[in-house]
Write a structure and sequence with these properties.
19 helices, mainly alpha, 2 strands, about 60% helix
Length: about 375
């Protein structure tokens, strides 16, 4: 047993970690056994079970790109911890990271481990068959039942409380994964022999419509589920008070202390040189790329994060200047580095399977369109 494994939960968080501790095993991400990839099981009618999205979907087109692999954690993290206040309140009150920060035992491996589970535990819902998606949702739903409280922000009691497993907050947890996913893809994904560019309005609407299957899985209220970008924009307006910038949402209701400052102090106190192994990939997924990633998000979201007009302009500019680095970070070596540390072995297999299926589906669709076009061109003119 490594020192890190023995040290978790002790009164001191100053532990030495090994490369094996950092990489972990499938157990870090796996729940309910090995996940079944989309297309590897059958529906009752004998057709392949492709899960909630499937090959040929716009969501898979976005999700499977290396740029999404590289930048999703940063985009999701920025929105969920700086934009939507009930999620930040849940982290503040109920997350083990916050508890360890208050105890003074939090260390860099704890922080890395928490971040690395974000994408790796969601990939089975996005890339697995229906049973796999439902089982992972069931696990997360049960965990999130404990993430509830009466106070979102001590300075704004009118906001009321939060409940991560209830329809509103479960919906926004999903949307603050999917919408940032689309934005970093459009801003950073080099594809089709072109520089990064937006999807067509029709494709963007289709992305939102397909996201509806995910929102239904997590229990969102049907009347809130958007069918296109315009409806998504209206949804942000409906819940605008929960996205208002604040400097007090991080304050613990019982003591008034800022839990993020407590976290930084604990990590610094418990730092061991071996924890650089965890610090480097953490920084590469958060602080080092946060400004350009924020620059890819909608102006409404950047305002929710409390960016000053000056920093807002700097973020938008940084997103453009960042493109050469973004290209490097979506190449094979870096993608493999991030996949193993942040997504895990199961997700790597799911991703590879999904990419094969998606490519085959798009090729078949292109061939069908070509044949249809040739038949149309060869048809005799009508009298």
């Amino acid at each position: 047993m490594s020192t890190a494994a023995a040290g978790h939960g002790s009164k001191t968080g100053k532990v030495k970690i090994t490369r094996e501790d950092l990489l972990g095993t499938e157990r870090r991400w796996r729940r309910f056994g090995e996940p079944t990839a989309a297309g590897e099981s059958l529906n009752e009618d004998g057709t392949p079970d492709y899960g909630i999205f499937g090959p040929g979907s716009v969501v898979w087109e976005v999700l499977l790109h290396p740029a999404t692999v590289a930048f999703l954690n940063a985009a999701q993290g920025a929105v969920q911890t700086k934009g939507y206040n009930p999620i930040e309140a849940g982290l503040r009150d109920r997350d083990p990271i916050s508890r360890k920060a208050r105890e003074g035992t939090l260390n860099m491996l704890d922080v890395f481990d928490r971040l690395s589970r974000n994408s790796g535990m969601h990939a089975p819902m996005w890339l697995g068959d229906s049973k796999t998606a439902k089982l992972m949702y069931k696990h997360l739903h049960n965990i999130h039942k404990k993430v509830a409280g009466d106070v979102t922000d001590t300075a704004r009691p009118e906001l009321g409380g939060y409940a991560a497993s209830e329809p509103r907050d479960a919906m926004w947890a999903a949307l603050t994964e999917m919408h940032p996913m689309l934005r970093v893809y459009e801003a950073f994904a080099f594809r089709d022999g072109k520089f990064p560019h937006r999807l067509s309005p029709e494709q963007r609407d289709q992305f939102v419509a397909e996201t509806g299957a995910y929102l239904r899985l997590v229990g969102a209220a049907e009347e809130d589920i958007p069918a296109n970008m315009a409806e998504l924009g209206a949804l942000y307006e409906k819940y605008a008070d929960l996205f208002e910038p604040t400097t007090t949402v991080n304050n613990l209701p019982d003591t008034g202390e800022d839990w993020t400052k407590l976290s930084k102090e604990a990590v610094k106190k418990n730092f061991h040189i071996s924890q650089v192994r965890a610090l480097v990939p953490y920084l590469l997924q958060t602080t080092l790329i946060e400004l350009p990633v924020m620059g890819t998000l909608p102006a409404r979201m950047r305002r929710s994060m409390g960016l000053s007009p000056r920093k807002d302009k700097a973020a938008v500019r940084a997103a453009k200047l960042f493109l050469p680095i973004a290209w490097l970070m979506q190449q094979g070596p870096y993608e493999r580095y991030i996949l193993r540390r942040m997504w895990g072995p199961d997700s790597i297999r799911l991703l590879q399977s999904a990419r094969r299926l998606h490519e085959q589906t798009l090729a078949r669709r292109a061939m069908d369109q070509l044949v249809a076009g040739e038949k149309s061109a060869g048809a005799p003119a009508s009298a």
